[in-house]
Amino acid sequence: MMMKNVSIALLGCGTVGKGVIDLLAMNKSLIEEQLDTAISIKKVLVRDLKKYKQMKLPKNIAITTDFEDIINDDEIKIVVEVMGSADFAKNCIESCFLKGKSVVSANKDLIADYGIPLLKLSQKHNVDFQFEASVAGGIPIVRPMYSSLNSNAIEEMTGILNGTTNFILTNMAQQGISYEAALTEAQKLGFAEADPTSDVGGFDAARKIAILATLGFHSELTFKEVSVEGIEKVTQADIQHATEMGYVIKLLAVAKQTNKGISMSVYPAFLQKNHPLASVGGANNAIFVHGNCVGDVMFYGQGAGSLPTASAVVSDVMNVITHFNNQITGKRRYLWREDKKLYSTSRIMSPYYLRMIVDNAPGVLSSISGIFAESNISIRSLIQKDETKEIAEIVILIDSSPNGLVKKALKKVESLDCVRKVASAIRVVEV
Amino acid sequence: MMMKNVSIALLGCGTVGKGVIDLLAMNKSLIEEQLDTAISIKKVLVRDLKKYKQMKLPKNIAITTDFEDIINDDEIKIVVEVMGSADFAKNCIESCFLKGKSVVSANKDLIADYGIPLLKLSQKHNVDFQFEASVAGGIPIVRPMYSSLNSNAIEEMTGILNGTTNFILTNMAQQGISYEAALTEAQKLGFAEADPTSDVGGFDAARKIAILATLGFHSELTFKEVSVEGIEKVTQADIQHATEMGYVIKLLAVAKQTNKGISMSVYPAFLQKNHPLASVGGANNAIFVHGNCVGDVMFYGQGAGSLPTASAVVSDVMNVITHFNNQITGKRRYLWREDKKLYSTSRIMSPYYLRMIVDNAPGVLSSISGIFAESNISIRSLIQKDETKEIAEIVILIDSSPNGLVKKALKKVESLDCVRKVASAIRVVEV
């Protein structure tokens, strides 16, 4: 008997698209044996025909620049969207749903902005919409969140979700180089883009934590509700102070749910060296999830890259095909609670590491500590390091205080004549 | 409209059974909202009625000592088996399948011995059989293995899968106490059983790695095919030598698949301190999986305990109910390949740490090193420490050599008159 066959199309043929083509070739028989169904890539949508003719894709794959070629091909049952931009991708995916095609997407920008409306639309049209690769590349986290940790009330998720910034911070620590030098190296090696804002500004991590929080907290959360701070201001001096004090600096994406509400934020943080996330080096990703019954679980692996991301995309495709074969396409239930309550991140407490450049003169410490005392913020330690005759560097650790209060106090500190600048204000995470 | 209701029964009401009862009460509305179905525990099978009457279970739960009460109750659709022993559990589960009841089991002994025959039987009777909690408690690994990492050829799995031994080894390292003292403490705290053989002998970890390898390698593997070594011979001296050399000692469960075949083994090992598994402390579990596309992924969390294990059990129950609601009960496909090829663990190469007690006399080192030279095993380092005038301790690191060859050479070494005993032979894992 001939094996069933499912034809799919790719929208986009960049790093991830190429990975999907490669993976389906590498693991062809293993995948077909599990599904009892063959997968064939029938068409690939690209922007520039010439560029892709050089790639020498397998001959049975047709390359097109016209989305109509794909949407009007009734043989194509699954469309794999691996383009990256949000708006064009959204239009394409909506068209797919209307035509009864299921969609797998690796596009975090899209999912963070339009994930829930698209999921709802897919259910209306009885098709599948899956997006495991949109968070943390190949690490299984999206499906485990809704199909393995679903017996828990999820209370907190803390992740290192951006490989670029983790690569930069790891290199700053290991090689003693500046932020700028580490960024340049990351760009050279292809770990950072020419315009690195989305990564180093924390926006990419913010999109991913919004996706995870949406699933974990059963709430329609969006990227715009994440309080975002990047790593651009982290200096080699901060890294060295962290090392001296037994910490490493990581860009964390944090989502919390308490009875007061949900908060989501992205910020660089001092992590104690024995924290399991502290040893996540290079471009790797990791996510800590705290459920009310399971306790802490962690997922770790490569958060990007061609084949790791393709691993998640193809696993989604296999899932969609299993649903075809069991005739349950579009039947997954998602729970979205109506009463979304947000908790302002400015009210969240944490200790802080502060670094200031001040005049090297008497009375400076007393002025600064006076402001903290007024604000009811208590100082745990204070070290002054003379830089020159005129300038001194002060490093202060303050006890756990509401983030908003700390920011206000720092504005006052910065307005002091004797303070040249507040160079760093980085949260400290204690286990 | 009334919500649907699914009645379930528990076989056993120990730590895990109680956890399931507690979890279903704690997270009742969250679970029901996700499923659009209520779950009610109708009956619980126990051995000793008196004992459980004191537990004050919710009044709507009937307690029985007679399995017939459960098997003949047609209202009960899912049976949760949390007893622990293999043979009685197997009989019960087979009866459930025959009666069209789906089963969720947390019983690693059972799954390791009878997992595949039971899965096949469940499919024959069109019921579900799920067992996420049989490996690593609450950590999602069984379902991710077959539904998220399924796009990969799995090449290796390395896990810390036994909490008891990890607790003992962690305490030996942190408190400088002997194996015996650490075991006694673990028993006092309820982390080890009165007869600890299954844990400290490595058999529990062996059962779990056999289950994971069966799923990951699509091969009908059994516990009996695992080469097993426990931690009973690990001494405080070994721990100290490991620390001095930058290692920690962990009990690893390792399964590998190459084109030469599949090997499975459990053994204590020297792990470099920067290995991600090295920081897994206390009673925690972690599993590293290497897929040919996804690379390394790691799953980490509590491998035992009432609520963490219940988290996995209830997630399985929710899965079964989702299958009921979608009318796909018993339809999950598993791929078992026919051509199981085993690779003898005696042919696997690794460096070794060796510790010997010898006569403090001239010529001893030359006799020992002569035997290694004959066997083509090269010595990386050798340190002699005089214990007394008569006795010396020798610590040797040898380069990567086939395990079988090392064992043979050690037998020869031990037969030397000047060697009092080969106290330790522990594999070294290098990243």
Automatic annotation (TrEMBL), chains A, B:
Listed A to Z, the keywords are: Amino-acid biosynthesis, Methionine biosynthesis, NADP, Oxidoreductase, Sodium, Threonine biosynthesis
Q: Name one GO molecular function term.
A: NADP binding
Q: Please give the InterPro entries that the UniProt record associates with this protein.
A: ACT-like_dom_sf, ACT_dom, Asp/hSer_DH_NAD-bd, HDH, HDH_cat, HDH_CS, NAD(P)-bd_dom_sf
The lineage's top-level taxon is Bacteria
> What does the entry list as the binding residues for L-homoserine?
E193
The ACT domain covers 353-427
Q: Where in the sequence is the active site?
A: K208 (proton donor)
Q: Name one GO biological process term.
A: threonine biosynthetic process
The entry's NADPH-binding residues are K108
Protein's pathway: Amino-acid biosynthesis; L-methionine biosynthesis via de novo pathway; L-homoserine from L-aspartate: step 3/3; Amino-acid biosynthesis; L-threonine biosynthesis; L-threonine from L-aspartate: step 3/5
Give the Enzyme Commission number.
Answer: 1.1.1.3
UniProt lists the family membership as follows: Belongs to the homoserine dehydrogenase family.
- Its protein name is Homoserine dehydrogenase
Origin species, per record, is Megasphaera paucivorans
